[in-house]
C-alpha cells in the first residue's frame, strides 16, 4: 500500500491542509472509495478504518487484483470547522457552499481532445476518454482551498470503474443514490449492502460528486451519438450508511466486509465472491422521494420509524406548540418508504423533517436538498 499526501491550496499564511489517499494494487480495474465528504457524517470514516484493515490483509495475501484507492477522510476543511462545540461539516463556512455540490465539468474539454483518437473499439475509447479527462481535471486552475479539494478528489476518482462515496443521513435506513444509467451495475451493490432503497436520477442538479464521476459517460455517449461506441464505464454511488450516531465497530466491520464482497464480485479482489443476497429493497426515482416539511415551528415528535412502509395521509410526526398547545400533524403525501428523518426535535417553519420514497416520479427541477 502506498500513502500519498496531496497539499491543498493554503487559505492563509502559516496554514496548510492536505488530503491523504491510500493506494492498493496495480490491476486494470480501479475502484475509488472515500469517506465523510460531509465531514460531520462519521459512519463512513469508521467503515473506511475497517476497510483499510481488510485491504491490508488482502494485500498481504496477494488477493488485490485491481487498483483500489481509499480516502479515509475526504474533507480536511470541513473536519476542522467547529462553532461553539458544534461540528459544521456540510457547508464550507467561507463560501457557504455544500462540500458535495458544484464539481467542475470537464466533459467537453476531454471530448474535444479525445475525438481524434476514438475508434470503433469501445474499450479503447474508454482508455482514451479517461486519459483526456484526467488531464483536463488536473490542469484546471483553482484559486480557493475548496476548489483545490474538489480538483484533488476528482483527479483521484475520475478514471475509476467504481466510485463509492460514503455518507449518512440524520436517522435513516441504509440507502443509495446513483444515476439511472448506473442501476444495472449498482443492483448487485444494493443487494450486497442490504440497501432498503436506491434512488435514481439522471442529473439531479448542482453536480454532486458521484454524478460528476458517472455522468461523463452518458453525456459522452449522447455527444458522440452513433459515431463511436461509448459504454457507461463508471458506476458512481452515494452510499448512505444509516444515521449520524450509527458509528459502531460491529456495524462498520460488517459494512466493510460487504464492500469487499462487492469488490470481489467486480473482480478487483481475487477469490469467489459470496453468493449475492436476496434484495431487501428496490430502485425508485429520486423524483418520487417526497420531503416532509413542517408548516409551523415547535417540538417535533415522530410517530413512525425510519424503515416503516407508510400510506398516503398516514401521520408520520407531530409538531407541538409549547405556548398554545396546538398539535400539527405531518402526514405522508404518498405511499412509500419512510427512509430518513431528522435527528433534531425542534422544527422551524418550513423545515424538512423526513423523506418518503414513493414509486412514481412527481418532482421536477433540482432534486437534492441543500
User: How many E strands?
Assistant: 20
N→C terminal distance: 37 Å
Give the SSE order as H and E letters.
EEEHEHEEHHHEEEHEHEHEEEEEEEEE
What is the level-2 CATH architecture name of the largest domain?
Answer: 3-Layer(aba) Sandwich
Query: Could you name the CATH topology of the largest domain?
Result: Aminopeptidase
- Overall domain count: 2
What would the principal axes of the Cα set say about the shape? globular
| Class from secondary-structure proportions | alpha+beta
What is the CATH class of the largest domain?
Alpha Beta
Q: In DSSP terms, counting alpha (H) and pi (I) runs of 4 or more, how many helices?
A: 8
Largest sheet: 9 strands, mixed
**What's the rounded overall pLDDT mean?**
97
Radius of gyration (CA) equals: 21 Å
Structural features, described:
The chain is α+β, with helices and mostly antiparallel strands and 370 residues long. It folds into 2 domains: 2-280, 3-Layer(aba) Sandwich (Aminopeptidase); 286-357, RNA polymerase II/Efflux pump adaptor protein, barrel-sandwich hybrid domain (OB fold (Dihydrolipoamide Acetyltransferase, E2P), Beta Barrel), CATH 2.40.50.100. It has 8 helices and 20 strands. It has helices at 43-60, 76-79, 107-114, 122-139, 145-157, 183-193, 209-224, 249-266, and strands at 2-7, 18-24, 30-35, 67-71, 82-83, 86-87, 162-169, 171-172, 175-179, 197-201, 235-243, 282-285, 289-293, 298-302, 309-310, 315-320, 327-331, 336-341, 346-347, 352-357. It has a 9-stranded mixed beta sheet, with helices on both faces. Strands 8, 13, 15, 18 and 20 form a 5-stranded antiparallel beta sheet that branches. A hairpin with a 2-residue loop joins strand 5 and strand 6. Helix 1 crosses helix 8 and helix 6 packs antiparallel against helix 8 (249-266). The longest helix is centred in the first third of the chain and has 18 residues, at 43-60. It holds the Pfam family AstE_AspA_cat. Keywords: Hydrolase, Metal-binding, Zinc.
